[in-house]
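SAMPLE LOG
Freezer: B-3
Tube label: C17
Construct: single chain, 242 aa
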Amino acid sequence: MVRNVSRVVIDNLDQVRLEVVRDIRDPRYLVFAISIPLAIYLAYLVTGIGRAPDQPIDGMGWPSVLMVSMAALGAMIAAVGVAAGRPAASQNLVVKAVSAMVLALPPLIVVGTAAALDGVRLPGVEWLVLAGSLWLGAIPFVALGLLLGPVLDADTGDVVLLGVLVVLAILGGLFQPIETLPAELAGLAHVLPSYRLADLGWTTLADRTVNPADVLVLAGYTLVFGAVVVWRKRIEDAQVGE
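STRUCTURE (predicted):
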C-alpha cells in the first residue's frame, strides 16, 4: 500500500517536472508572464506614467505599488495560462494545477528583483511574506485556468485568455489606482480576484498584515471555480464509463 502510494507520488512529481520544463520553454510563457509585466513596470517608471515616484499611495511609494501590481499580473498570466494550456484529463488535473503554481513563482521573482535593483527596499522577511502572499493568492487563477482551458478553441484560446486577464487587470486596479476609476468600476474592483490578489501585496507592504477580506474573496473564487472543475470532470468520467 505504502509502496503504491509512493510510486504514484513519484510519478506525479515526475509529470510536474516535465510539465514545468515544457512550459517554461514556451515562448508564450516567457513573453506574456515574464517579459510583459517586467516591461510595463519599467515603462511606467521611465515615462512617469501613473504617479510620481515620491507621491505615496496609502503610505507606499508608487514604485512599490507598481511592483506589486505587475508581480500580481505576471502570476495571474502564468497561473491561468499554464493551467489552461491543454484540456486536463482526470489523471493529470492535480499535475496541471501544481505545475501552474510552480510557474506562477518566476514572475514574482523577476519583477521583485527589478524593483529591488531600482531602489525598492524591504527587510528580507517582508520580501518572503510578500512573495508568499502573492503566490498563494494565485490559486484561484489556477482554478480559473482549469475551468476555461477545456472549453476554449485551440486557435483562439490564447487571445480569449489574454483578453479576460487584461480586463481583470484594468478593472482590478493593476494599471492605475482604483480611486482614479469611475465610482461604479471602483466598487466592482473590490469583488474581483485581480484586485484582491494585488491587495494582498499592497496590504502586506502598507500595514504589515493580511486583509481578511482578500483571503475570503480569493478563497471563495477558488471554491467556486474548483467545484465546477470537479463537477465537470465527474460528468466526463461518467460519460466515458458508459
